[in-house]
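Help needed: design a sequence for this.
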């Protein structure tokens, strides 16, 4: 969930000269030469339309969810294909309203690529307690290459348990949580879409032949 403007202006000057019969270089009635400038007006080429997914570029974040919040950073792919590159950052805070310091951050080694897949009208509940709305989404096919997960932060250490690496997260009061490092994860792909309402970004995913709400973000 960068407009490129092109302006081409072309102008030229054409001088028309005609010569008739008569004497030398006098200015008598026999001289019918005509001279003048014809200016071709500038030709303005309309700028190309922005990529269909350009409206979703930016940094987005959802509501705090019990100490945890995931940020989404969206950019256009630099190859001119109109696809998006998306990075996610999961942040865990010391307070349940996500107002305190970040205890640890979870990142993915690879970016998600969202390729345009047309547009379509769907019915979607934008909130759990609201009726379904008729909306038009930009459809995408998303793919995540084989990747690893990394957990970092001031409360994180690495330990070996049963011969396997784990991240140990201390809560500052003597308690800790151990999360296994699962190593290289297989590539993933799926269909989904984006819907923009003001500064809100709704992401949807296809499930059992229908689109369901995935996440709601607000632009930072």
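Sure. Designed sequence:
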């Amino acid at each position: 969930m960068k407009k490129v403007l092109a302006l081409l202006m072309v102008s030229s000057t054409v001088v028309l000269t005609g010569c008739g019969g008569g004497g030398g270089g006098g200015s008598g009635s026999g001289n019918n030469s005509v001279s003048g400038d014809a200016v071709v007006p500038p030709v303005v080429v309309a700028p190309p339309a922005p990529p269909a997914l350009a409206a979703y570029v930016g940094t987005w974040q959802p509501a705090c969810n019990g100490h945890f919040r995931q940020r989404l950073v969206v950019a256009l792919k630099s190859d001119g294909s109109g696809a998006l590159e998306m990075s996610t950052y999961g942040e865990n805070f010391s307070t349940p309203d996500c107002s305190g310091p970040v205890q640890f951050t979870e990142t993915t080694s690879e970016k998600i690529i969202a390729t345009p897949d047309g547009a379509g009208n769907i019915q979607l509940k934008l909130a759990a307690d609201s009726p379904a709305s008729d909306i038009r989404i930009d459809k995408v096919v998303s793919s995540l290459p084989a990747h690893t997960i990394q957990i970092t932060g001031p409360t994180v250490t690495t330990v070996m348990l049963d011969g396997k690496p784990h991240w140990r997260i201390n809560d500052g009061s003597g308690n800790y949580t151990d999360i296994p490092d699962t190593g290289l994860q297989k590539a993933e792909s799926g269909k989904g879409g984006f819907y923009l309402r003001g500064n809100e970004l709704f992401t949807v995913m296809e499930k059992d032949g229908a689109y369901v709400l995935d996440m709601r973000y607000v632009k930072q």
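The CA atoms of residues 93 and 99 lie 7 Å apart.
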